[in-house]
Specification:
transmembrane helix; mainly alpha; 356 residues; elongated; transmembrane; membrane
């Protein structure tokens, strides 16, 4: 534990990462797949650096936090995990045994950081929303228990009977959406932000910490188990390990979670297998199967070969019709010009002969 008494403003090193994962999710990665947490610690390190964002030291978030080390953050996480039914003032009272001189604001900001690290939710004050402009912030107030706060930030489960009869095809992957529909991806460290689609920018948000989801499925956690399972299923669906286009796509972003075990999980086939993420998946499916936009998508989208060939043959015929029409017009104009010149020459010759 001594290694985690590093200032929280400094990103943790490899030894600290082992201790942090063990404390947060009870996983010993000293001899295990540490690479599976690489993207998470990129996020964790970014959060540490954000504590010192500002034009002066007085404006740094770290200067108004009770927690000063990674050990302090982990202590807050342990307290929150044991007291999830308490309100925030009660949690502050428990934490004052460690942070005796801290005021409420310093405690709240330390709790927010702990929740970001533990639950990967974008819990922060609205005044710091510019730290994460693409991700909506969520604030825990004094009138809600932590368990209720977490629940209300996730979509409610829908009854299976209300699911439309929609079957996923093999092309329904993020790599295909990017290649055929021009949909871009932004990786979000906020689990509640998963699968949110920005229609204006045509960007879908994807939560990439698959290993953390798997770890939380094995322990007691505040995140609903249904959310965790469905998120893993959605990642299996949208990033299949057997797809070469997905491999190439993930290589661009230095992401490898689609290759992480276990591989025994079934590949989802129907929308009815989802209840929490159903509406977001359905919206994504509808946009993906909408008519292509732009010439690049029109050329690359060959999911319907008959439609593709019909469209491009019609384009070729149209182009040839225009080309031959232009040629005919130019030829007619040239013929008219030649006839006019011949007429002028004939008139000149007649006039010359009459003068002689």
């Amino acid at each position: 534990m001594a290694s985690i008494y590093l200032p929280v403003t400094e990103p943790p090193g490899p030894d600290n990462e082992v201790a942090i994962i063990k404390q947060l999710w009870g996983k010993d990665i000293a001899k295990g797949p540490a690479d599976a947490y690489r993207s998470y610690f990129r996020y964790y390190s970014t959060e540490c650096r954000r504590l010192q964002m500002g034009i002066s030291k007085e404006s740094w978030l770290s200067s108004t936090m009770a927690a000063k080390t990674h050990a302090d953050i982990l202590f807050i996480v342990r307290t929150l995990s044991l007291e999830s039914q308490l309100y925030r003032p009660d949690v502050r009272a428990l934490l004052r045994h460690r942070f005796a001189n801290a005021d409420d604001l310093a405690m709240n900001r330390s709790i927010d950081f702990a929740l970001r690290a533990w639950l990967t939710l974008n819990v922060r004050e609205e005044r710091f929303s510019l730290h994460t402009p693409s991700t909506p912030v969520m604030e825990w107030d004094d009138n809600t228990t932590l368990a209720d706060f977490v629940d209300r930030n996730f979509p409610n489960a829908s009854p299976t009977s209300s699911a439309p009869s929609l079957q996923f095809d093999h092309a329904f992957t993020i790599a295909s959406m990017n290649r055929l529909s021009g949909i871009e991806v932004e990786w979000t460290p906020c689990l509640a932000d998963h699968l949110r689609f920005d229609k204006r920018r045509r960007i879908v948000r994807i939560y990439p910490f698959k290993q953390i989801l798997l770890d939380q499925l094995e322990i007691r956690t505040l995140i609903p188990k249904g959310i965790l399972r469905e998120t893993v299923l959605s990642l299996n669906l949208l990033f299949p390990r057997w797809d070469i286009h997905t491999d190439n796509f993930m290589l661009q972003y230095d992401q490898t979670f689609h290759l992480e075990a276990p591989f025994s999980d079934p590949h989802p086939q129907h929308l009815s297998e989802f209840s929490h993420w159903r509406n977001r998946l359905m919206e994504l499916h509808q946009i993906f199967h909408s008519p292509p936009i732009g010439w690049t998508q029109l050329w690359t989208d060959r999911r319907n070969p008959l439609q593709w060939y019909t469209f491009w043959i019609a384009i070729v015929i149209l182009v040839l019709t225009v080309v031959f029409g232009v040629i005919s017009t130019v030829t007619a104009v040239m013929q008219t010009c030649f006839a006019y010149e011949a007429l002028k020459l004939t008139r000149a010759q007649v006039l010359s002969a009459s003068l002689d």
